[in-house]
Amino acid sequence: MGQSRAEEHLLVARARIGDARAFEALVFQYTPRLRWFATKLGLSTTTADDVVQESWLAAWSGLARLRDVRQFRSWLYGTARNKCLQQISRERQTCMLNCELAAEEPDDAWFDQYLPYIGAALENLPPIHSEILALRFLEGMTYQELAEVVQANEGTIKSRLHHAKRALRKELEVLANEGSRTT
Predict the structure, then answer these.
(1) Looking at the domain that runs over 105-182, which CATH code has it been given?
(2) 27-78 residue pLDDT tens
(3) Among residues 33, 25, 50, 168, which one has the least CA distance to residue 104?
(4) pTM (2 decimals)?
(5) For the chain, what are the domain ranges?
């Protein structure tokens, strides 16, 4: 860090009024330190890079609201910390959802029991559920591909898939019970 606090404050003041070069100098100065900070909060290096970039985007758009240039460093680290915590929360939710989905995978006996009813069950589901199930299991799309098709993020896709599986399971049980009564 080859500059004084006064020089840094001048860069912040210039960046606040839209000087892209001053902002670039701040980015150059703080990015390695923010990346290190993000990894110490538990993010992988790749994810830390993404979060640092999000932090800089937030900093650029919010810099004009910073009242005191002397508070830049703590404000920037606070922004980065919030972005890191949001990412950690998203990762935990995804992990919990993945664990729930894995626990819900049916075994072969369950599948064999309900196989004759799958077509009818899919027709009885709301379109949002039948769409996601058809794309995932009939077309074999990845979560990323599903997200692109339905224009939602991967977390939303996983959630929709989870709810669609539950709805399908309920519908299959209803149809199987009705089928066993008629035989």
Answers:
(1) 1.10.10.10
(2) 999 999 999 988 888 888 999 999 999 999 999 999 989 889 998 988 999 8
(3) 168
(4) 0.53
(5) 5-97, 105-182
